[in-house]
Specification:
It is a single chain. The chain has one domain: 2,3-Dihydroxybiphenyl 1,2-Dioxygenase, domain 1, CATH 3.10.180. Strand 11 and strand 12 form a beta hairpin. A six-stranded mixed sheet has the order 9-8-10-13-12-11, covered by helices on one side. Strands 4-7-6-5 form a four-stranded mixed sheet, covered by helices on one side. The protein has a three-stranded antiparallel sheet with strand order 1-2-3, covered by helices on one side. The chain starts with a helix and ends with a strand. It is globular, with a radius of gyration of 17 Å. With about 220 residues, the protein is α+β, with helices and mostly antiparallel strands. This is VOC family protein.
Length: about 220
C-alpha cells in the first residue's frame, strides 16, 4: 500500500489489530498477540493496492516448477525473507496471482478463522473446470485428503463481479456482525463493492479499504 500508517488506522479500527514493525518498511498485524496479516509498502506506486493470499509449502522450488508445468506463471522467483522463510509470487493459467511461503522462523498465521482474522480464500474465475484441474492437482492432499478442512473455494467471476473483472483470489476476514462491519468500512473511507449475499461458506460482502484494496467480510 502507499500509506502504511493509513492502513494501520483502517484495519486497526475495523478488526482490532495492533502492529509491529517488520522487514523493509512492512508491519505485522497482530490480534491477541499473534500474527494475522502483514501490511507492506508498494515498491511501485503505479501498481494497485491488493491483498495477496500465500499458500504454505515445504518445498517452494518444486511447487514453483509444478505450477509452471501446469500452465501457471512464475511472477517473482523464490527469494529469502530474512530468517523467516522463502516467498514467491505465481499466477494460475488465467492470471490469478497468489503467493507461496516456505516457512523457517515464521510458520504463517498465528490465528485464523476467529473474528478479525483470515477465514477463507475464494478464487473468482471464468474457467471453473480448469481451476479444478489446476488447483486440485497442485493441492490435492490439502483439499481432498480424508479429514481435510480446506478454507479455499472457487466461483465464476460473474457470480459476484462484472464479467470484465479479471480472475483473482479474494481474501475473506471473519466478522461477528456483517452489517455493523460494513458501516465501519464506510466510515473509515472504504466502500462496498458487493452487498451482502449468501454463499455456501457463510454470509459475505465484498469491500475495498481506504486505499482501494479489495477483500471480503464473512459472517458465520
Amino acid at each position: 500500500m502507499s500509506d502504511v500508517e493509513g492502513g494501520k488506522r483502517f484495519y486497526g479500527e475495523l478488526f482490532g489489530w495492533t502492529f509491529q514493525e517488520g522487514e523493509g518498511g512492512s508491519v505485522w498485524a497482530r490480534l491477541e498477540g499473534r500474527p494475522v496479516a502483514q501490511l507492506g509498502r508498494k515498491a511501485d506506486g503505479r501498481m494497485p493496492t491488493v491483498w495477496t493470499v500465500y499458500f504454505a509449502t515445504p518445498d517452494i522450488q518444486t511447487l514453483s516448477r509444478r505450477i509452471t508445468a501446469a500452465g501457471g506463471q512464475l511472477v517473482v522467483a523464490p527469494y529469502p525473507v530474512a530468517e523467516l522463510g522463502r516467498a514467491a509470487l505465481v499466477a494460475d493459467p488465467e492470471g490469478a496471482v497468489f503467493g507461496l511461503w516456505q516457512a523457517r522462523r515464521h510458520p504463517g498465521f498465528g490465528l485464523r478463522h476467529a473474528p478479525g482474522t483470515f477465514v477463507w480464500a475464494e478464487l473468482y474465475t471464468r474457467d471453473t473446470t480448469g481451476a479444478n484441474t489446476f488447483y486440485g492437482g497442485l493441492f490435492h492432499h490439502a483439499l481432498f485428503a480424508p479429514g481435510a478442512d480446506p478454507d479455499f473455494g472457487r466461483a465464476d467471476v460473474t457470480d459476484v463481479f462484472p464479467a470484465e473483472m479479471p480472475p483473482h483470489i479474494l481474501a475473506h476476514f471473519r466478522v461477528t456482525g456483517l452489517d455493523e462491519a460494513l458501516g465501519t468500512v464506510r466510515r473509515l473511507g472504504g466502500r462496498v463493492q458487493a452487498p451482502p449475499f449468501e454463499a455456501s461458506y457463510g454470509r459475505v460482502a465484498v469491500v475495498t479499504d481506504n486505499q482501494g484494496a479489495s477483500f471480503a467480510l464473512l459472517e458465520r
